[in-house]
Amino acid sequence: MIEAALSARSLVSLNNSSIASGGQRELLQLMSAAQLPFSLGSTQDKGDRMAEADGKSTALNGSEEKEPGEDQHKEGDASGSKEGQTESSSQDAPKETGEPSGDKPMPDVEGETDANKEGEEEEDTDSMDGSGLYSLTEDGERESEGGRRERAKDKDGGKRAARKRNRPGGGTNHSSSSDEDDDEDEEEEQKDDEDDDEAMEAWLGAELRDLRGPIWRAVPSLRSREIGRDSHQFVRRVCGARGLVQRLELQGRLERHTGCVNTLHFNPSGTRLASGSDDLRVVIWDWAIRRAELEFDSGHKSNVFQAKFLPHSGDSTLAMCARDGQIRVAELSATQRCKNTKRVAQHKGAAHKLALEPDSPCSFLSAGEDAVVFGIDLRLDRPANKLVVVKEGDKKVGLYTIFVNPAKTHHFAVGGRDQYVRIYDQRKINENDNNGVLKKFCPSHLVSSESKTNITCLVYSHDGTELLASYNDEDIYLFDSNHSDGADYRRRYKGHRNNATVKGVNFYGPCSEFVVSGSDCGHIYLWDKYSARIVQFMEGDRGGVVNCLEPHPHLPGMATSGLDHDIKLWAPTAESPTGLKGLKEVMKKNKRERDEDSVRHGDQYDTQLLWFLMRHMRNRRPPR
Fold it and tell me: In what ranges is there compositional bias, type Acidic residues (predicted)?
């Protein structure tokens, strides 16, 4: 019996295979109904090749996949840890305490700016149009490696001169002794380089766990579905399978916008995709056939940051927010046109994010850089109601992100211009009692950190038990939302870089099995949530930064966008799993740049200056 993960291409092409049956043809019809643009290919004779490919993939990704009954897994971290290295128990002990069942996989699912001032130029943007191209090719690696060697040589030359000056005689010895000095210098340099490499490897390998063996297997799952056993869980298991995540590849592009694409959102059924851009326009896509069904002017005066379909509205109501601080609602008709857009709330600073209530077609929340959270109810004559002004002591905290707990819809979490994740309960916000905060979370090492970090994005897991937060020029942290006030993080996801823009983060998989984020290096990273190991690494935007990542609600795939003016669609159609080529070098490069910037600046970045630099670089960018 073939025990191998089956790619989505193989699933779709089962109709042409000699093993296709009635149950499997239903899967084909499911994929066809969603019009997922997967390529077709033969399957029956690919089984052995796929099993062999899976074996290669797991060896590269840190764990050889074995039968569930086996006790041990081979480990070799492709995300940067040394072979056989394990995390220290003392480091994990405080994070393991009180770990809820939410972190354990289901039995059948495998282990997801300073306030801008009004009247500022409308052409400003929070993304860097002029970023240089970055491509993870062998030539690119050689060039970057060469550049590092040159910088290291200059640095080492300075060290050597300093060491000579500090020696007795101040470096004025005769030539016979100078040769000995040079040998000593080379030995010291070599030792320093080895120490640096060891420190980097130790940092990359810290706080990692073993990858668990695959729970979903293609052929047994197909056979079980044929006889009606657990058939209702089939698609969910497929979407959460690590084997398919490791086969994600670029399927196509959606091209219509003339500016950076800042927001993506699938409708609840997954048939339509909304996008918003610096060009102030919103486009509704039939993504499966890659066609724009509707395009309209948002009514905003500056960069559109988010556009979302309201649930249970028949895809007829779209909520939007932008850098101009306006919260607007667009009414769409069944004849593929926009009836009107109207303003329902106004922040005094940029409004980056909206938070939808899962079952409400007429109410949602907004958060702005003015530190205000609005509750908006479209049934009222005055829709906007100020829920809370977020403060730390007497100081307002500008907000970049907000999210409603899908299981406890009266709870919402916010993050912004400090290091704290704050959770509020809409039913009992008393600003005289702890500024209305129900509980706060923060990584323990950032509580008293001198470097002022910001939270650029946070998101709840599918069941509301976990909370994921991405920090600028820091890492991504997973918190248990049920833990008490002040609890430390449970997982840490490393390797990417979040500095140049307000970058997003998300869970991937129907049961939040993976964590996905973009990076300033232009790549997309997917971590296994439980082990914190990278299982997929893809080149995203040539412009240099990937900001938005939107998983499809029901199928294995996602849409991404960033500084490029297009939208990219990803699906698991690769013949073999990823080899994570070049990952370690890119991770080390991101870490070095982060450390250098931390030493150089030592304080949070100035958003006004960042926007000025972006505009300057965009104006210098040669026309295409």
Answer: 109-127, 178-197
The pLDDT assigned to 434 comes to: 87
From the list 127, 132, 252, the residue with the least C-alpha distance to 542 is 132
Report pLDDT digits (tens) over 494-527.
999 988 778 899 999 999 999 999 998 989 999 9
Query: Which among 120, 114, 151, 25 is positioned nearest to 615, based on CA atoms?
Result: 120
DSSP structure string for 13-44: GGGGSTT--HHHHHHHHHHHHHT--PPP---G
Can you tell me whether residue 469 is helix, strand or coil?
Answer: strand
What H or E segment, with its residue span, contains residue 621?
none
Residues ≥6 apart with Cβ < 8 Å to 609: none
How many other CB atoms sit within 10 Å of the CB of residue 88? 9
What does the radius of gyration of the chain's CA atoms come to, in whole angstroms? 26
Q: Are 533 and 547 in contact (CB under 8 A)?
A: no
Using CA atoms, how far apart are residues 608 and 585, in angstroms rounded to an integer? 32
Alpha helical stretches, state H, 167-233: 175-205, 218-226
pLDDT of residue 618: 57
Please state, in angstroms and rounded to a whole number, the distance separating the CA atoms of residues 539 and 525.
9
Angle between helices 218-226 and 22-34 (to 10 degrees): 110
Distance, in Å, from the CA atom of 469 to the CA atom of 95, rounded to the nearest integer, reads 16
Q: Which two tokens stand for residue 386?
A: 């100020």
Q: Which pLDDT does position 154 carry in this prediction?
A: 52
| One-character DSSP codes across 439-496 | EEE--GGGTT-SS---EEEEEE-TTSSEEEEEETTS-EEEEETTSPTTPPPSEEE-S-
Instruction: Count the alpha carbons within 13 Å of 257 in the hemisphere toward its beta carbon.
Output: 32
Element (H, E) at 368: strand 363-368
Place of tokens 């766990």: 209
Q: Quote the CA–CA distance of 492 and 295 in Å, as a whole number.
A: 40
The span from the CA of 485 to the CA of 466, in Å, is: 14
pTM: 0.69
The residues with which 488 forms a beta bridge, in sequence order, are none
- The Cα–Cα gap between 509 and 307 comes to 22
The pLDDT tens digits of the residues spanning 446-476 come to: 998 777 789 999 999 999 999 999 999 899 9
Dihedrals phi, psi of 294, to nearest 5 degrees? -150, 140
